[in-house]
Amino acid sequence: MTTFNEAEADALFGNRFLTELAPATSFPTSGMTPTDAMRLVGEELNLEGDPQRNLATFVTTWMEPEAQRIIAENLHRNFIDHAEYPISAEIEQRCVRMLADLFHAPGETTGCRTQGSSEAIMLGALSLKWKWKERQQAAHRSTDRPNLVFGGDVHVVWEKFCRYFDVEPRIVPLAEGKYTIGPEDVEPHLDENTIGVAAVLGTTFTGHMDDITGINRLLLDVKERRDLDIPMHIDGASGAFVWPFLYPDSMWDFQLEQVRSINVSGHKYGLVYPGIGWLVFRDTSDLAEDLVFYENYLGKTDATFTLNFSTGASMVFAQYYNFVRLGRDGYTYVMKQMQQNARALAANLRATGRFEVIGEGLEQLPLVAFRLASGHASYDESDIAWQLSAERGWMVPAYTLPPNAQEVKIMRALVKETMSREQVERLTSDIAAACTTLDQKGGTTEAERAQVKIGTGY
Questions:
Q1: Which residue, among 65, 44, 91, has the nearest Cα to 323 in the 3D structure?
Q2: How confident is the model at residue 449 (pLDDT cuts 50, 70, 90)?
Q3: Which residues are 398's β-sheet partners?
Q4: Quick one: three-class SS letters along the chain?
Q5: Count of CB atoms situated within 10 Å of the CB of 428
Q6: Whole-number Å distance between alpha carbons of 309 and 75
Q7: Chain centroid to CA 13
Q8: In whole angstroms, what is the distance from residue 210 CA to residue 180 CA?
Q9: Which of 36, 181, 306, 319 could covalently link to 185 via disulfide, CB atoms 3.0 to 4.6 Å apart?
Q10: Which fold has domain 69-322?
Q11: Is the pLDDT of residue 39 over 90?
């Protein structure tokens, strides 16, 4: 009978971390075999949630095998090194030009890839601030107190920008039943120190859009009456890859005169893995020249407009792959498929008699925002979210809306490319089962509720 010592048995039959704790608090003294390291990481990740049941995140969780191969074969490429990888830079600009065309840019434009919409928003808002300073200086006015106007429906990154870059945030509060903003909300906040207005195309909270055309009309009126040229930035993190295909006649982009810049997340409805975002300007003159840096220490003189520097090029290639693979027809097909399943889920939820669907009939992202109808006081949306996670592994967030709608709690289910009609029916059944369980037990504990979090992914 052959016997093995412990080390030999680990090498032949398994790995030592089946019985030992993983390194966690100090730098390991010695290493391990590649197989052991792979197994260790894999076993840790087995405890993660199932991406197919993650209806909280807007971020893409699946790409075609061919796209995955492109990504894997190009992980070594540093996008910022244009001297060594000039084709990477060219592919980035192809994507920018395609987006400018999709967003109806009237002429020569510029833009860049970013790590996600957070970086794109920071860069776009910085350009708003610098262009405002130029206008103020030309008019011999003070540049001491810039402000930025946006609604409570924005992503938190807008408040981060204001805090990080010393800009006064003028936040329009929401209200129950009013979860986006329009011109009547914006007008009282405008003055000569307003660097711009940020409007959202597809909010994180309910998936709807601000009244962008109405705000544009207001800004044109202010330009004429008060001689204040206040630009608008469109936060299209989610919506700018949805509206052109689901609502091609909707006016929200560079067709509107005061829209000067747009951001969009490639890793959301651009259908690319994280992280990739895009910033596109209406015209080359809308990018403040002082924000562009020129350097030559990578082998050639390059212009850079980024917050990050070294970053992988593979997601740029993945975005270009999707553009040429799908085209307008393909993106339209995918978006309509998601919209159809979202509508089916909304109809199912409404038919239970337990839920109210938020904002049906309006232009919206492919998602369902819903809340309990009156008469279910023994438990709330957080209880349902926890029960869904505990019983069936679905990640469906429950959260309160921003001020002054903070008393409103809703749930939100993202319906993405990988969600089939059969899964819609299964989710509906599992929500009903969760409610039945809660009917019997009367709710969940605070500790259980604390484990249910909203996912955004800018």
A1: 91
A2: low
A3: 411
A4: CCCCCHHHHHHHHCCHHHCCCCCCCCCCCCCCCHHHHHHHHHHHHCCCCCHHHECCCCCCCCCCHHHHHHHHHCCCCECCCCCCCHHHHHHHHHHHHHHHHHCCCCCCCCEEEECCHHHHHHHHHHHHHHHHHHHHHHCCCCCCCCEEEEECCCCCHHHHHHHHCCCEEEEECCECCECCCCHHHHHHHCCCCEEEEEEEECCCCCCCECCHHHHHHHHHHHHHHHCCCCCEEEECCCHHHCHHHHCCCCCCCCCCCCEEEEEEECCCCCCCCCCCEEEEECCHHHCCHHHCEEECCCCCCEEECCCCCCCECHHHHHHHHHHHHHHHHHHHHHHHHHHHHHHHHHHHHHHCCCEEECCCCCCCCCEEEEEECCCCCCCCHHHHHHHHHHHHCCECCEEECCCCCCCCEEEEEECCCCCCHHHHHHHHHHHHHHHHHHHHHCCCCHHHHCCCCCCCCC
A5: 17
A6: 16
A7: 44
A8: 5
A9: 181
A10: Aspartate Aminotransferase; domain 2 (3.40.640)
A11: no
Q: Which residue has the higher pLDDT, 305 or 431?
A: 431
| Whether pLDDT at 22 is above 90 | no
Burial letters for 78-106: b for 16+ Cβ neighbours within 10 Å, e otherwise?
Answer: ebbbbeebeebbebbeebbbbbbebbebe
The Cβ-side half-sphere exposure at 129, using a 13 Å CA radius, reads 21
Q: Residue 339 above 60 pLDDT?
A: yes
Residue, of 357 and 38, whose pLDDT is higher: 357
Q: Is the dihedral of CA 203, 115, 339, 386 positive or negative?
A: negative
CA distance 21 to 13: 18
- Indicate if the pLDDT at residue 443 is higher than 90: no
Question: Of 213, 205, 220, 207, nearest to 234 (Cα)?
Answer: 213
pLDDT tens by residue, 351-362: 999 999 999 889
CA distance 452 to 56: 10
Give the contacts of 102 (CB within 8 A, at least 6 positions apart). 244
- The angle formed by the CA atoms of residues 243, 247 and 253, to the nearest 5 degrees, is 50
Q: How would you classify the pairing of strands 194-200 and 147-151?
A: parallel
pLDDT of residue 27: 95
More confident call, 100 vs 79: 100
For the chain, what are the domain ranges? 69-322
Q: What is the mean pLDDT of the chain?
A: 92
User: How far apart are the C-alpha atoms of 85 and 306, rounded to whole Å?
Assistant: 18
Say how far apart CA 111 and CA 281 lie, in whole Å: 6
Query: Amino acid identity of 380?
Result: D
Instruction: Report, as an integer, the average pLDDT of 132-143.
Output: 96
